[in-house]
Amino acid sequence: MTLNKVSIGQTVTVKKLSGQGATKRRIMDMGITKGVSVTVQKVAPLGDPIELTVRGYQLSIRKADAEMVEVE
């Protein structure tokens, strides 16, 4: 399952990042790495952006980037 399929309020653990190059680096710079817990706080009406809580910080991530984050 990918991060963009997670329901609001659900907490999941990152299993794998499948992006490459600058996209993967941008996701990792946000603190989204393998093994970290992520909670989905809010999703915009059209699905972009997705607001998350990662390591106690509030973040917004694009839907296209969320598709590259595999979770369990």
From TrEMBL:
Residues 1-72 form the Ferrous iron transporter FeoA-like domain. Keywords: Iron. This is FeoA domain protein. PANTHER family: FE(2+) TRANSPORT PROTEIN A (PTHR42954:SF2). InterPro entries: Fe-transptr_FeoA-like (IPR007167), FeoA (IPR052713), FeoA_core_dom (IPR038157), Transcriptional_repressor_C (IPR008988). Gene3D superfamilies: 2.30.30.90. The keyword Iron applies. Signal peptide: none annotated.
